Hints:
Layout: E1 11-15, E2 36-37, E3 40-41, H1 42-53, E4 57-62, H2 66-73, E5 80-85, H3 91-103, E6 108-112, E7 115-117, H4 124-131, E8 139-145, E9 158-160, E10 166-168, E11 177-185, H5 201-209, E12 213-217, E13 222-224, H6 228-240
Parallel strand pairs: 1-4, 1-6, 4-5, 8-12
Antiparallel strand pairs: 2-3, 6-11, 7-13, 8-11, 9-10
Amino acid sequence: MSKRTTGIPQTAMVMAAGFGTRLRPLTETTPKALVPVLGVPMLDVVLNRLQAVGVKRVVINLHHLGDKIRAHLKDRTDLEILYSEETEILETGGGIVQALPLLGDQPFFTVNAKIIWLNGKIDALQRLAASWNDEKMDALLLLQPTVTAVGYGGKGDFTMDQDGRVRRRREWEVAPFLYAGIQICHPRLFRDAPSGPFSTNLVWDRAIEEDRLYGIRHDGEWYHVSTPQHLREVERHLSFHGIKF
């Protein structure tokens, strides 16, 4: 019988250390995670979503203007918030590895603090948790259909079979899915990982080889806030549809 988790992961990591170079000049004085969408900082949207599904502890990695993130969250009490300070940018994989002692030994969410997502009929975080299978998976990715990703202009990242196993896009392909910036992963995904900066792609590729990287399709809307122009487009779209955070 398949071994599944018995609920929502209690811990999450929020990736907030980056410089937000493409969002300049906004990010020269404001960390990207605190750039507001419809008046609400993206980090607050993420934390509110995590708290709403039952996450208790959040680890946030910090580097660029990290003191402003600490100050912004100093009075928040509905979540246990811990910080992983990076003296250099450790990228997605290195940032998680440094934070592992704070994250514990159970599966945890990771969420990029530069995305906005709208849920379908069921909360995307709840769908991920319900789909997690500890025997089969080292990571479970939320995948966004490439053709409906607002603010994205790439060729996609992954293909996915009918069982949810994920494979890389070949160089000459346009892939149907991109990584939506949200996943559940087990600490074992990072076993024997290198020290210092590295991308999560490194450990994902090993998981693919071992048939332990899976995905589910996001059934709501998804927005990539990467430039001031994208931010304006996202806000116009959300406002037109009456979305509030």
